[in-house]
Specification:
It contains five helices and 13 strands. The protein has about 250 residues and is of the alpha/beta class. Helix 2 crosses helix 4.
Length: about 250
C-alpha cells in the first residue's frame, strides 16, 4: 500500500474547528491517495467504484485527493440559473451530491472521502461539521483564520468563502466531498452564484497569505488534519493503481 504514518489521534483539532460534540469513534487506518489531475467524469467513475467496494467491505476508508480541469457542477435539484455566464465554455455536470452550483479547476484541492459511517458516527450533520473542522485546522497551519457561518455549510474567512462541501451518502457510506481554493483562478467564480448564495465572494490560500502555495503542499497538511479530526490512528499512502487497479482513468501528476 506504500508508506504508512502512525498518528496520535486528536479528535479536537486546533482552530475554530474544535467541536467536542463532533468527536468520532476511534478508527483504524485511513488510506490516502494523491491522484494528481483527474477529469471530472473519470473521478466520478472512480468514486462510484470505490463506493461500491467500500460498501461491500473490500476496501477500507479512503480519502481521494486531486485537482480537476475546469468544470461547473450542479447538485441534486440545483438551479441552472445560478450559472449566470459561461463565456469560456466550461463543461457543466449535474451530479448526485447535495448543494447548488460550484466551480472546480486547477489550483483547487478536491477531497473525496469514501468512508463507512458506523454506530454514533451515523450523523450527517456531525459528518459535515467534521469536514469543515478538518479544513479549518489545515488552514490554521498556513496562518489562515477560518471558521464557519451560522446556518451555512462550508468554510469562510471573514465574509469570503474559501471551501465548499457537497456530499452524498449511500448505505451510510460517503462520497463526493469538499473543494478548497489553494491557488485557484477566482475569476471563474464570477460566472456563477457560488453555492446559490447571492453576493458570495470566494477567496484562496494564496490570496490570503500573499505567497505561493501549491495544491500538493496543502494536500500534505490536509491529510494530517483530516485523519486527526476523524480520529484515524494511521495514514496509509497509496497511488492510483493501488486504489482502483482495474479501471482506466486519464490521470496526470501535477
Amino acid at each position: 500500500m506504500g508508506a504508512s504514518r502512525n498518528l496520535t489521534p486528536n479528535p479536537f483539532p486546533r482552530g475554530k474547528g474544535n467541536n467536542r460534540e463532533g468527536q468520532l469513534d476511534a478508527r483504524g487506518p485511513l488510506i490516502v491517495a494523491d491522484m494528481g489531475v483527474v477529469e471530472y467524469d473519470d473521478a466520478l467513475a472512480m468514486q462510484s467504484a470505490m463506493l461500491a467496494a467500500r460498501i461491500e467491505g473490500s476496501v477500507g476508508d479512503t480519502l481521494l485527493m486531486m485537482e480537476h480541469p475546469h468544470v461547473f457542477t450542479l447538485g441534486r435539484g440545483a438551479d441552472e440559473r445560478f450559472i449566470v455566464a459561461n463565456t469560456e465554455g466550461v463543461p457543466i455536470r449535474r451530479v448526485s451530491r447535495g448543494g447548488e452550483v460550484t466551480y472546480h479547476g486547477p489550483g483547487q484541492l478536491i477531497g473525496y472521502p469514501i468512508l463507512k459511517l458506523e454506530g454514533r458516527d451515523r450523523d450527517v450533520t456531525k459528518y459535515l461539521r467534521n469536514l469543515e473542522g478538518a479544513m479549518i485546522d489545515a488552514l490554521a497551519k498556513f496562518g489562515v483564520d477560518a471558521g464557519r457561518r451560522e446556518g451555512m455549510t462550508g468554510v469562510w474567512v471573514g465574509a469570503r468563502k474559501i471551501a465548499s462541501i457537497g456530499v452524498g451518502i449511500r448505505r451510510w457510506t460517503t462520497w463526493h466531498g469538499f473543494a478548497l481554493n489553494v491557488s485557484t483562478d477566482l475569476s471563474y467564480f464570477d460566472s456563477i452564484v457560488p453555492c446559490g448564495i447571492e453576493g458570495c465572494r470566494m477567496t484562496s490560500v494564496c490570496e490570503l497569505t500573499n505567497r505561493a502555495v501549491s495544491v500538493r503542499e496543502f494536500a500534505g497538511v490536509m491529510r494530517e488534519s483530516f485523519a486527526s479530526t476523524f480520529n484515524y490512528d494511521q495514514i496509509n499512502i497509496a497511488d492510483a493503481a493501488q486504489i482502483v487497479p482495474t479501471a482506466e482513468f486519464v490521470i496526470a501528476n501535477g
